[in-house]
Amino acid sequence: MGAVRSNVVFVQDLSSNAVLYSRNEEGARPIASITKLMTALVVTDANQNMQEIIEVTQADVDQVKHSRSRLAVGARLTRADMLHIALMSSENRAANALARNYPGGLNAFVVAMNAKAKQLGMTQSHFVEPTGLSSDNVSSPRDLVKMMQAAASRPTISNFSTDNQQEVRAGNKTPTVFRNTNMLVTNPSWDIKVSKTGFINEAGQCLVMVTRINNRDTAIVLLNAEGKGTRIYDAMKIKQLLQAKQQVASTDQAEIESPEKEL
Length: 263
What we know:
The chain is an alpha+beta fold. The protein has one domain (8-257): DD-peptidase/beta-lactamase superfamily (Beta-lactamase, 3-Layer(aba) Sandwich). 36% of the residues lie in helices and 22% in strands. The chain has helices at residues 35-45, 79-88, 92-100, 105-119, 141-152, 155-162, 228-257; strands spanning 8-13, 19-23, 29-30, 53-55, 76-78, 138-139, 165-168, 176-179, 192-200, 204-213, 216-225. β10 and β11 (216-225) form a beta hairpin. It is globular. The chain starts with 7 loop residues before the first strand and ends in a 6-residue tail after the last helix.
């Protein structure tokens, strides 16, 4: 795995649970916007009305990292659109608005995030808010695989996180087009079931996916990469390595089954 440059690498075959590659997998670390997969799990499992209109307020403005947003204060979207752009485009204000509009508000939502983590067996994970902007949201690669498997089993999360783009209309304003932060979802050679990117300084560039490789569901966790393109390059490299390994294995098996006869 020398060619893969992310600091943390964890690749698992979800059919056999075999760990295919790992590097620096031990311990919990900041996960940035990968947090939004847990946010999505709490929202979808609460069975709230997805067509209810939610408004972005000043409470949703990032006071931690002062990140930019394309959702203005006062923007009004359905819960479904909020979830869609939170997953696909990592929209922080949308994620926070979803949590505020949970029964009991933001504090109850964070309690629900940690309860969901416990339910999924994520023993090295802890959440303090719904966006990932706080470096106190932490998890381990093995825990993230558990979270991705749960996310992949929810069609809404699977569809929204792997969608290429979505046009949303906030109130009476001109429609805004939001695009996926993972360029691989537009590549026809990839079959991705769940995807989420993330970045804060403490976490580095992050990417997690469940994707089909060699006709098997495979979880890829890449954390603390330097440079925005590294996580994408690493995912492509991992796929190439797994496909090459499969090709060698298939060739060896064919030679065993059809040995050349001596003349």
